[in-house]
Amino acid sequence: MFAYIVRRLLWAVLLLIVLSMVTFSIFYLIPRLAGASPETLAARYVGRAATPETVHLTAERLGLLDPVPVQYWNWIKGVFTGAEYDYGAGVETCPAPCFGYSFITRQAVWPELLDRAPVTISLVVGASLIWLIAGVTVGVISALRRGTVFDRGAMGVALAGVSLPIFFTGLVALAFFSYRLGITAPGGQFVPFSENPALWAYSLLLPWITLSFLFAAQYARLTRAGMLETMSEDYIRTARAKGLAERKVILKHALRGALTPVVTIFGLDVGLLLGGAVLTEKTFSLNGLGKYGYDAIVQGDLPKILGVTLVAGFFVIIANLIVDLLYGVIDPRVRLE
Amino acid sequence: MNQSRSWRARGLAAVGISAALLLAACGGGGPGGEQGPTTQAGASGFNAGSTTVVNPSDKKGGTLKFANEGDWDTLDPGETYYAYSWNFSRLYGRSLMMFKSAPGKEGNQLVPDLAEGPGQASSDAKTWTYKLRQGVKFDDGTEVTSADVKYAVLRSTDKQTFPNGPAYWEGQLDLPSGYKGPYKTPNMNTDSAIETPDKYTIVFHTKKPFAAFDYLAQQPNTMPVPQDKDTGAKYRNTIVSTGPYKFENLQPGKSFNLVRNDQWDPATDPNRKALPDRIEVTLNVNPDDIDNRLISGDLDVAVTALGVQPAAQSRVLQDPTLKENADNPLAARNWYTSINPTVAPLNNIECRKAIMYAMDHTGYQTAYGGQFAGGDLATTILPPNIPGHTAFDLYPAGPDNKGDVEAAKKSLEACGQPNGFETNIAYRAERPKEKATAEAFQQALSRVGIKLALKPYPQGDYFSSYAGNPPYVVKNKLGLALNGWAADWPDGFGFLSQIVDSRVIRPAGGSSNTSVRIPEVDQMLDTALTELDTDRRNQMWGEIDKRVMEEAVIYPGVYSKTLLVRSKNATNIFVTDAYGEYDYLGLGAQK
Which residues on chain A are in Cβ contact (under 8 Å) with B286? Predict the structure, then answer.
């Protein structure tokens, strides 16, 4: 078990390095191969009236004049040993892990990632709890009452949930609940949990519900399908034949079997969202990792993009690892070696 | 089942999905005044704020809420370069000169701010002297001196530290050779460029005559910066205020507040009412959410003044109550198309004229959102709210403005291409209005046999790598390129210099001027800058405009207009022509 976890973590580090290389290449190697000069790349980060000399100075400041492998090496070196940054009036030291300085805002990336992570974590934790509980409950009831009005109604709503994009449901929800009825917080509100748990929940209630609406639908449908399949398994019949109470048959035997795919997808979803719930954060103007990454991509701010990509990759890999470990707990047939 | 292989595959797939999700999210931002300034106050109704003061009040107190759909370019007065930011910066900083806080055209007037009066010019327009008001203080209580203004201007010329700022100062001032700003070359004598003979006098020396120097002096670059508090590129987060407000709780990329600066003395400042007690600014807010909040009254100002999003546009224009509380000012911006004479057969002026005549002008307007959201049909480069604008139309588009096909065909014959020709049109892929304009060109020009192929390019690299990169333009036959320009300040030089002066074209790409290479125009610009008589100078800007239009290298599309929603809470609401936005200095709050 221990060796397995260590092996997986080593793979994770390798994956993160490959991920950073791919992202770096998309932004720097590919344009260079297509014929762009360092000055052409630097022209994105200067004002509209900049002179060629300013462009050259910027290329120099951003290290774009170095060969691409050297640029990459400098970035990697910064992550492990820290880096120094000339801000004109002095030199600032960025301690490891230094993910570099934003090309645009001139802020160190790592502290900003740490600053924004609580927003994304708060959003994802709340929403995932809602969608897991609501989705699985609706899925189980639908499966048990297959063909009833509840089943058809719930699956209809679920289909709508999967189909409607969050930038639509989010804006409609904000316009109605926040601006017309005034019962939920307006967009862009976030109060840290440590400051005021009640306001924290209030400010995130609408994003939680909107985000979970999207996901709960998938979980309801997945749970329903899984339950229908396991309920027709031989071991369910055996359990009933043994005289077990129906509640025990459903919760302990059928649901457990049906949960494996749900846990798999839950791990992936939570991992992906922790790396940045891009659309939700943008719709609700929440300053989380997703919005940070989105804004960075729009501005071509490479150090930020690299930072968010690696954090997202990290979360996905860790979530996968946890899911794989959980398999062993949920499904007795799986043994990790 | 091979577990480890499955895990590896799943891990890779998961990472791929996360990267794809991030990258898939990629995708995606002007100022606006009507003519005829009036000082009558208290009007209301659609577009009343463009020329008059709506909801006038001198009541002090209350809070105004501003929101920005993106991040502020920078709050550092030495580097900021957006009209909205210059408008806003007057709340926390005092430059030598400033635009008067007044509605409509009156807002275009320059008035002394930190200076006692306008600059005194030498006869050759190369030396400019300003006397500073006495008793102006930084928010820490220190008195502002001419040395602080000199330091502020000099630091802003360090383009390694401040690459995004305007490039006028280092271009115009007679700085010593090798000067790289006060950080890198602190001991270099800069008296050849700026002298401070005493605490309250500052003298600027330019390399060439610069008759419009007061316009430079109104830039935030002249807002004083105390050297001992300057932190270079990081000063944007620790600005020392000289205006009626100072910063509180500045969180980069998220929000900041302005609160009253108790060191600001109204006796030294005839220009500012400073009505609200507090201004709260939120950054990176979803633009559709901004519109909803403006309409519901939860927000007062969309600070970038780009106008409401399409979703809210139809809502505002169709609902009489909402429309009554909206303004539709003219921006100091022209959405135009460059016609590149470096791409054959457009090296022949007659072929360029054929395009000028053949284009359906109303198609351009429709593509930009029509009369309200798009703007008025443009026939000149200078918009009507820029002093110097002269109305003329060298290429009439027929009685219905849908193009003069016969005149276009004659031009094609004169060009030796009677059946038309093929060329390409470049536009920014992320901008649906530009795509619609390119399609309108394609459709209109096909009537005379000119075949256009659409070439979308990413906006981040549009000028640096594609449409503004001269070798790329030639190699890829980009005959036409969609373009747009807003004035750096409301004056012919502020509007024209970056788009019609051939000397700003960079061989490596990055300039907005892609098509105007007329040595005579370069000369005319230089001559205008020696003219100290403002009226005569303004007339010269109009002449330059006409000379460029004669060469048919720019197709003017629309004089941009924006649809702005007035705050329910704010008082003293009016649009200033200086920025084509609500005057942020004049606004007050009811609560």
Answer: 171, 187-188, 282-285
**Domain regions of chain B by residue span:** 5-52+76-238, 330-561
pLDDT digits (tens, 9 = 90+) for A33-49: 877 788 888 877 887 66
User: How far, in Å, are A71, A106, A179, B76, B432 from residue B232 at the CA level?
Assistant: 24, 11, 42, 9, 38
- Given A98, A131, A166, the domain boundary residue is A98
Domain that holds residue A203: 110-336
Is A103 domain-assigned?
Answer: no
- Beta carbons of B228 and B142 less than 8 angstroms apart: no
pLDDT band at A180 (very low <50, low <70, confident <90, very high): confident
- Same domain? For A79 and A120 the reply is no
What would the CATH number be for the domain defined by B330-561?
3.10.105.10
> What interface predicted TM-score (ipTM) does this complex get?
0.84
Find residues 51-110 of chain A whose CB sits inside 8 Å of chain B.
51-55, 57-58, 60-61, 87-90, 92, 104-107
Asked if residue A4 belongs to a domain, the reply is no
- Mean predicted confidence (pLDDT) in B201-209: 96
Query: How many domains is chain A partitioned into structurally?
Result: 2
Confidence band for B350, pLDDT divided at 50, 70 and 90: very high
Helices (H) and strands (E) in chain B, counts: 18, 23
- Interchain contact, B18 vs A88, CB within 8 Å: no
- In chain A, DSSP finds a helix count (H) and a strand count (E) of 15, 2
Name the pLDDT band for B559 (thresholds 50, 70, 90).
very high
Under CATH, domain B5-52+76-238 is a member of which superfamily? Periplasmic binding protein-like II (3.40.190.10)
pLDDT digits (tens, 9 = 90+) for B207-266: 999 999 999 999 999 999 999 999 999 999 999 999 999 999 999 888 999 999 999 999
Q: Which amino acid is at B464?
A: S
Q: What's the pLDDT score for residue A155?
A: 84
How large is the average pLDDT for residues B551-562? 96
Specify whether A212 is located in the same domain as A299: yes
Q: Which of residues 271-300 of B touch A (CB under 8 A)?
A: 282, 284-286, 288-289, 292-293, 295-296, 298
CA-angle at B72, arms to B582 and B246, nearest 5°: 75
User: Domain check: are A161 and A224 in the same one?
Assistant: yes
Domain identity same for A178 and A258: yes
Chain B CB within 8 Å of residue A285 CB: yes
Beta carbons of B241 and B261 less than 8 angstroms apart: yes
- In whole angstroms, how far apart are CA A289 and each of A202, B24, B74, B268, B540? 20, 15, 21, 45, 52
Write out residues 14-33 of A within 8 Å (CB-CB) of B: 15, 19, 22-23, 26, 31
The answer to the question of residue A256 being in a domain is: yes
CB contact under 8 A, A11 and B11: yes
Using alpha carbons, list the distances in angstroms from residue B153 to A235, B169, B172, B368.
82, 8, 12, 38
Q: Is the pLDDT of residue A244 over 50?
A: yes
Same-domain pairing of A187 and A299 = yes
Does residue A202 sit within a domain? yes
Strand, coil or helix: B110: strand
Structure tokens at B201: 């006098």
Interface of A with B in 216-235 (CB under 8 A): none
Residues A182 and A256 in one domain: yes
Phi/psi region, residue A203 (left: phi>0; alpha: psi -120 to 50; beta: rest), is alpha
* Domain termination residue (choose one: A36, A70, A98): A98
The string of pLDDT tens digits covering residues B326-344 is 999 998 899 999 999 999 9
Task: Verify that A36 and A135 share a domain, yes or no.
Answer: no
* Same domain assignment for residues A91 and A115: no
| Contact (Cβ atoms closer than 8 angstroms) between residue B53 and residue B584 | no
What residues of A are in contact with residue B178 (Cβ under 8 Å)? none
A320 touches chain B (CB under 8 A): yes
